[in-house]
Amino acid sequence: VDAGFDTSKPSTLTSGLRQLSNLKYIMPNTITLDDVRHVAYLARLALDDGQILQAQSGLNAVLASFSALAAIDVSGVEPLFHPAEIALQLRTDAITEHDQHAAFQAIAPDVAGQFYLVPQVLGT
Amino acid sequence: MSFDLPYHQSALAQGTSARTLTERSIERAKGAVALNALITDNFAGALAAAEQLSASGPLAGIPFAHKDLFCTQGLRTTAASKMLENFVPPYSAHIVEQLASAGALCIGKSNMDEFAMGSTNAHSYFGACHNPWDVTRVPGGSSGGSAALVAARVVPFASASDTGGSIRQPAAFCGVTGIKPSYGRVSRFGMIAYASSLDQAGVIAQSAADCAQVLQVMAGPDVRDGTALNAAVPQYSNTLAESIHGRRIGVPKSIFGGQFPGMDGAVLAATQTALRELERAGAKLVEIELDDLQAALAAYYIIAPCEASSNLSRFDGVRFGYRTHAPKSLYDLYAKSRAEGFGAEVQKRILLGTYALSAGYFDAYYLRAQKVRRLIAQSYARAFSQVQLIATPTTPTTAYAHSEVQDADAERAGDIFTVAVNLAGLPAISVPAGFVRGLPIGLQLVAPALHEAQLLNVAHQFQLLTDHHRQTPAGFGASR
């Protein structure tokens, strides 16, 4: 695997350090249990210890398969975030939506008046 | 009787009522209930609509099914998830409106992998769907229910969606025809999002000619989807009969050279036989380079989960969908609702996407994958400077046994020929191309963006020379 070191240019301390830190970016990492717990927190998924362990092995298996990416030279390539590189459509600046709050609230788990109810956040 | 679109249209022309045709379709659905291909039936709704049918639309009186990913106002839409088990949308998807205006009658919502994440239909909260050719095998996914319903001759067509092969792969596994249009050709409004830069709605039917009629109704601009292309839709049926003499079709050396990892030799040989039929129709096969497929697979399995982790953040237990019982805090409400509402595969992809987008890893995974994506698009562009279409097997193998689907690596590897097409936003079709050990296989044709007419034309000419798409699985034929 090309670890991102550019040997064609003279190394400096700064570029060397940057290249060292690039190692983390290029080499697929192994996810630790703490990583999985942190990611589950960010993803708002309440997982128990068994699920965390299972997720760790599943994620590490997938990440290992990403080594195919590290072998590709992407220097100078612009990312392609969207297949159709087009400007978004514009439309007339006019109201097109009508008030449907009753229809939307009818399918909500818990409402009161025009509000959606959630557990108390302040003063707890 | 083939129960395809012409069968239904000629029956209507000869005086059979839409209600009778719908009743027959419902009867076949009941006979195929063991396939578990429908999550929610709309039998009463379809019969009522048949009674009130006044439109003389292009699909007036034709029964069909919607993949349960498309919002249907007043009819439960689950995305095969516990999260949306009781979700009745307050509005309909664009293609739901289009097909209703054309007079088509929706008899139900088809089974799928949860939130369209999977290639087996095993990841459904409502249970696995089965392949009509061999019920011990998967129908493919994620649009497994749509493909199984068409293969079992329950309906002549079904809507479907394709993020990395979810129309083409189940079409191949079930011996039916499936077209994934160019990105933006069909509005995504009201289609529950998985990966927004890859998702595209399309059709599964028996033949390319039937796909052409249905795509005609679905395709076109829509102001409610900012990425729907504002381009005129050609009359697809008008060019089906064109000769393909001299048409240049690219065959990637990396696949047809015989050394492709994981490629079933018998599937490759059957695909080569199918290519000879295209030559018989006058097409010229040209060897091309298309070497980035392994990288495309890796890029896809980064980009799609990243987009999914963002798209699925809307399911929080507050405004709609599943909510956990007695949450202790707002965080608890979010985290428990999502952990209890999403299945294992969906959670895995959300975690993967969240990880790849998190601080410190964004450049290594997401950004790098998007750069590889550009290389893949450029690779296709180079190929299309030499040829008009590219042909590959749709899948490296035939349908897997249910007992084999625990192997997540193998499931991902099965998407190798389909995902690159989505990364580049191109249109592609899978046509039945033969049988291997009694199971159907598909030939995939890929075209430059917005060249669906050409795909349908070549696929139709292929189907004039072959009868693979006319084969019906045992137990689902005319006698039923």
Plain-language structure description:
The complex is a heterodimer of chains A (124) and B (480). With 124 residues, chain A is mainly alpha-helical. Chain A starts with 12 loop residues before the first helix and ends in an 8-residue tail after the last strand. In chain A, helix 2 (33-42) crosses helix 3. The model of chain A is unreliable at 1-28 (pLDDT under 50). Chain A has helices at residues 13-26, 33-42, 49-64, 67-70, 101-105, and strands spanning 111-112, 115-116. Chain A contains five helices and two strands. In chain A, a hairpin with a 2-residue loop joins strand 1 and strand 2. Helices cover 37% and strands 13% of the residues of chain B. Chain B is built from 16 helices and eleven strands. The longest helix of chain B is centred in the last third of the chain and has 22 residues, at 363-384. Chains A and B meet through helix 1, helix 2, helix 3 and helix 4 of A and helix 10, helix 11, helix 12, helix 13 and helix 14 of B.
What is the gist of this entry?
Chain A is built from 5 helices and 2 strands, in the order αααααββ. With about 120 residues, chain A is mainly α.
Largest sheet, spatial ordering of strands of chain B: 4-6-5-10-11-9-7-8
Helix-residue proportion of chain B: 25-40%
- Which structural class is indicated by helix and strand composition of chain B? alpha/beta
- Which strand order spans the largest sheet of chain A, edge to edge or round the barrel? 1-2
Radius of gyration of chain A: 24 Å
Order of helices and strands of chain A: HHHHHEE
Q: What are the segments of chain B in which pLDDT stays under 50 over at least 5 consecutive residues?
A: none
